[in-house]
Amino acid sequence: MHGVLEDGSAMNDVAKWLQQEVPDLHVRICDVGMGKEESIFTSLEYQLEQFVICVNDDPLLKDGFIGMGFSQGGLVIRGYLQRYNHIKFPMLRFIGLSSPLAGEFCGYDSLCLFALYPSDWLNELVHNVFLSDFMFEHFSISSYWRDPYHLQEYFQIGRYLLDLDNQKTFNPVYKQNFVSVDKMILFGSEHDGVIQPWQSSWFGMWKEGGDSDVELMEERDVYKQDLFGLKTLNEQGKIVLKNTNNNHLNNVHNQKFIVEELAPFVKMDF
């Protein structure tokens, strides 16, 4: 599954290089709606629906598949794993390529996306706009925008990410499905340059009140309380953290990385 501001063609090289390394590999590239614009101007709920249709329209995946999501696509496939793995074609393994699995935020002490310069007034504007029904429906990033300066509002109003973290209404099925994979391989990099903090690719996130100090996966409440199975999966030794040293786009454009680091994990015996 591709990332934001992309369509399925962004994953063509990845598919080609993987199939060269694993000749019998069947690859299904899923797309969002009608192209790149819909990857940012539609909700993640809609994008998840498109992914569900894409996967379950391929009979070769009925006995199980390896889900791989790049950037925002990692959150889409996480939604599939937690919400549908017990009723649809099962995801056997999860691979996240530089995905904001714990959310995204930038703008005060960290820079990314639109934030070319730190600005209090700009970030207050973004905060007020992002937490609105219109933006949840029409701007994908708002679904996982986790503002450490306004966490109480996030807990009251947040949707997609808050739901998957089981912090909205606890759903035991989400946890059951999350721990059903044999491995969860999470690629991230301190040189990413887009995901903020980059440790979000490893389920880390900014500490409440600022965007300079990171709360690592094991330090977060969602981990300690094992709300959706993260602690269980980690204690079972099924979470693999890989530092790519790539910038964001190199995770899908660097052939050496795809062949040497990613390809082994698309073999279920690895």
Automatic annotation (TrEMBL):
GO molecular function per UniProt: palmitoyl hydrolase activity; thiolester hydrolase activity
Database matches in SUPFAM superfamilies: alpha/beta-Hydrolases
Subcellular localization(s) per the UniProt record: Lysosome
Family matches, as InterPro entries: AB_hydrolase_fold (IPR029058), Palm_thioest (IPR002472)
EC number(s) given by UniProt: 3.1.2.2
UniProt function note: Catalyzes the cleavage of thioester bonds from S-palmitoyl-CoA or S-palmitoyl-N-acetylcysteamine (unbranched structures) but does not have activity against palmitoylcysteine or palmitoylated proteins, branched structures or bulky head groups. Conversely, hydrolyzes both long and short chain fatty acyl-CoA substrate.
Protein name in the entry: palmitoyl-CoA hydrolase
